[in-house]
From TrEMBL:
Main location: membrane
Membrane topology: Multi-pass membrane protein
UniProt keyword list: Membrane, Transmembrane, Transmembrane helix
PANTHER family, alphabetized: TRANSMEMBRANE 4 L6 FAMILY MEMBER 1, TRANSMEMBRANE 4 L6 FAMILY MEMBER 1-RELATED
Top-level taxon in the UniProt lineage: Eukaryota
Subcellular location: Membrane
Name under which the protein is recorded: Transmembrane 4 L six family member 18
Species, as recorded: Astyanax mexicanus (Blind cave fish)
Length: 196
């Protein structure tokens, strides 16, 4: 049963990561702590893709809850292998969700924020790619919302980091689940008869 205990520990690790993804995504809707920008639709389009809420959040809660309840599944279906196969399927959902969160966050980070500049509302760093991230003096192009570049860079970087951790945890469980489902847990001491 040590593989079930390992899966439970991975489930406990995924819960705060998924929660933090949701919080980071929600905070992107309120730059400078104001609600006016979301009301007037003055946000980057990528915020509306809900990469942290749907991808890194809800989709990752599925494997987290599955990992935490695998002991009950193993007891009801009678085998740990069956529970491990279920954990692999749940991990694939988590893998897709965290991958989605990572890709959208990376694209949003590369494009930069949507902000008010001397030329009006636009994405001033869209054509620069990642170069603007290293040219802090150019961040002053964004007049409103205040500190929007720092806000977006910080929260999107957090989403990138969290989704990477979620992705790795799901991969670890896929490997563990496949090994335990196919090869049987090595935690058990099984006696084989040489005469059989």
């Amino acid at each position: 049963m040590c593989s079930l205990g390992f899966a439970r520990s991975l489930g406990f690790a995924l819960l705060p990561l998924a929660t933090c993804c949701i919080v980071a995504n929600v905070l992107l809707f309120f730059p400078d702590g104001q609600m006016d920008f979301v009301k007037d639709n003055r946000l980057t389009k990528y915020v509306w893709y809900f990469m942290g809420v749907g991808g890194g959040g809800v989709a990752v809660f599925i494997p987290a809850i599955t990992f935490l309840t695998m002991g009950k599944c193993a007891n009801s279906c009678g085998t740990e292998s069956c529970a491990m196969c279920g954990s692999v399927l749940a991990s694939l959902i988590g893998l897709a969700g965290s991958g989605y969160c990572f890709i959208i966050s990376a694209v949003a980070l590369l494009e930069g924020p949507f902000c008010f500049t001397s030329l009006g509302w636009r994405s001033p760093f869209e054509s620069e790619g990642p170069k603007y991230l290293f040219a802090r003096d150019s961040w002053s192009e964004c007049i409103q919302p205040g500190h929007i570049v720092e806000w977006n860079v910080t929260l999107l970087s957090i989403l990138l980091g969290l989704s990477t951790l979620e992705f790795l945890i799901c991969i670890v469980q896929i490997i563990s689940g496949l090994i335990n489902a196919v090869c049987r847990p090595c935690c058990y001491k099984q006696e084989y008869s040489l005469n059989a």
